Structure formats: C-alpha cells, structure tokens
Amino acid sequence: MHAFLNKKKWAGMIASAVTFVALYAIHIALRQRYGPGEGPRLWVAAALIASVGWLVLQQVRGVRSMDEYHRKIYSHAMAIAFPFAFVAVFAFGFLRGEGLFSAGDPRDLPALLLIFYLIGFVIATRRYR
Fold first, then answer.
1. How do residues 19-56 score in pLDDT, each as one tens digit?
2. Structurally, how many domains does the chain consist of?
3. Helices (H), the chain
4. Which domain holds residue 86?
5. What pLDDT was estimated at residue 83?
6. Could you tell me if 74 and 66 are in contact, meaning their C-beta atoms sit under 8 angstroms apart?
7. Quick check: 90 and 98 in contact, CB under 8 A?
8. Is residue 77 domain-shared with residue 89, that is, in the same domain?
9. What pTM value is reported for the model?
10. Contact criterion met (CB below 8 Å) for 81 and 122
11. Cα(109)–Cα(18) distance, integer angstroms
C-alpha cells in the first residue's frame, strides 16, 4: 500500500493548519480588545481568510496524492460531514434570526464544521478497516 501522503504534502498541510489555528486564536483574543474593523483585528482577519485559502489548497493537493483506499475514506468522511454541517449552519442561522443563540458568534462555526468532519472521519475509518 502506498503512503497516505508523502512528507512534503504532510509538511504543507501541517504548516497551513498550524497557521490557521494560530491566526484564529489571535483573532479570538483581539475580539476582546478591539471593535469590528479596528486596528490589527482587520489585518488578522484578512490573514485568517488567506490562511483558509492556503489550507484548502493544501487539502486539495493532499487528496490528489492519496491512494484509492485513503481517498475512499476521505470521500466517505466528507459525505457524512457535509449534510450534518449544512443542517447545523442552516439551523444556527435561522434560530439566531429568531433570537436564539444571540450570544453565539458565527465566526466560530468553522470549529463546529471541523467536529462534523472528525466524526465522519472516525465513522469512515471504522467502516473501511
């Protein structure tokens, strides 16, 4: 069986993920000190958006280098995660519009989406053992 990803692909994926998490943490900390669009918060938000683009690019490159077995696991995990994430975001938007979750910050939704992906990945991994 081929390696899941070669070392160069892993390095790019890890670097992009670490950059995203670091910028996300910095942005959360800056929310406490600055208002929307103020000071470094705007620059960190722009860098965070760019890091998401880099993360997606690295993810696509990684999937393209996977063998058939790992691509099947990845596809199955996404097939599980996408509908659950769609329903969660849809429900959050409508319920927030109705006054519920008013304290919730929609910028924190990526963490929820990641949880759905991890659940899908665990299910897919167990299925294809």
1. 999 998 999 899 889 888 888 999 999 999 999 999 88
2. 2
3. 7-33, 39-64, 68-97, 109-127
4. 67-129
5. 92
6. yes
7. no
8. yes
9. 0.69
10. no
11. 18
